[in-house]
Amino acid sequence: MKELIENFAQQLRQAMQAGESENVNLAGPRYSNVVMAGMGGSGICGNLAKTYVANKLTVPVLVQKCHSLPAFVGSKSLVIATSFSGNTEETLSMVRQAMEAEATVSFVSSGGEMLRIAQANNVPHLTLPTDAGPPRACLGFMLVQQLYLLHYAGLLDNAFKTELRQSIDLLEEQAGSIKVQASALASSLHTRLPILYADETFMPVAMRFQQQLNTNAKQLAHVNALPELCHNEVETWQNPSELNERLAVLYIKTGYDHLRSRLRMGLVREALEQKGQQVLEVEAIGATMLEQMFYLIHLFDWVSLYLAGLNKVNPGDTETINHLKRELSKV
């Protein structure tokens, strides 16, 4: 896992090269909506893509993580299905429904049943490297291919390519400092339950961090977004009071936080500190949204790896997840 995280910037570069080399035709009907279908490490890429394109696309984007598609999916829908293995049960279920609804479908996977369906139906398929590691370590490959599919569909202009190159440069420039910051943050979160707070815009980055803490460090974490948490969760820091000393609140700050969310962060911090709760902060670096997203993702991946070491667990082990998949395959 360490080598995979270390090579994240190179993964982004390889993903760009792959995207540029593809010859994909998605210039079908004038799309009225986009659905990003996927689960787990593949599914979070859909959330990140949606956040990035929110102010760039003129059609709504939905991220779907279950067995079913909403009723509005039809002939003017673009469904981008992502599954690293190509065999994810829930994603394949959505693929079949999308094809029945006569939606335009495109795939991102390393093969499996998804590749078979793509070849049998002449459906665009961007292929992931089979030796790239577990899905959660291949976020760069999957997210970049999703952006290229949106580009090939005529929905996303060329500007994202410049931001991708800038993101790669930033990660390479900040490689050393990211590790130092990640090691310190891991020490602060060790033996505690991380409470991750971010503005709604960057909620997918916080969710990705939570997932990496879960799978790599085998550690529970809680995520919530501003301003929503100010309407409910702020009242919960009373009971059970004995848990407070085992919690670690982390603010994830970016240049894209709403000004009112920043104001709320300060007010919530004051309330928490009055209750004796320390609040940690991480500030994103980068001139663009994509740079800040990838900076935080890379930083938090390192944190999850360092925490795995402190927790004395194998970050590559996902036996419980694998057990569930094996049992489900029997039914």
How many separate domains make up the residues?
2
Give the CATH architecture of the largest domain: 3-Layer(aba) Sandwich
How far is the N terminus from the C terminus?
Answer: 32 Å
The overall pLDDT average reads 93
Based on CA atoms alone, the radius of gyration comes out at 20 Å
CATH class of the largest domain: Alpha Beta
- Helical fraction equals 40-55%
- Uncertain stretches of 5 or more adjacent residues: none
Q: How many β strands by DSSP?
A: 9
The helix/strand series, from N terminus to C terminus, equals HHEHEEHEHEHHHEHEEHEHH
Identify the CATH homologous superfamily of the largest domain.
Glucose-6-phosphate isomerase like protein, domain 1
InterPro entries: Glu6P/Mann6P_isomerase_C (IPR019490), SIS_dom (IPR001347), SIS_dom_sf (IPR046348), SIS_PGI/PMI_1 (IPR035484)
Family: Belongs to the PGI/PMI family.
Pfam families: bact-PGI_C
Protein name: Bifunctional phosphoglucose/phosphomannose isomerase
How are the secondary structure elements laid out?
Elements: H1 2-6, H2 8-21, E1 33-37, H3 40-53, E2 61-64, E3 77-83, H4 89-100, E4 104-109, H5 112-121, E5 125-127, H6 139-152, H7 159-173, H8 175-189, E6 193-199, H9 203-215, E7 222-226, E8 247-253, H10 259-274, E9 279-283, H11 289-310, H12 319-329
Parallel strand pairs: 1-2, 1-3, 3-4, 4-5, 6-7, 6-8, 8-9
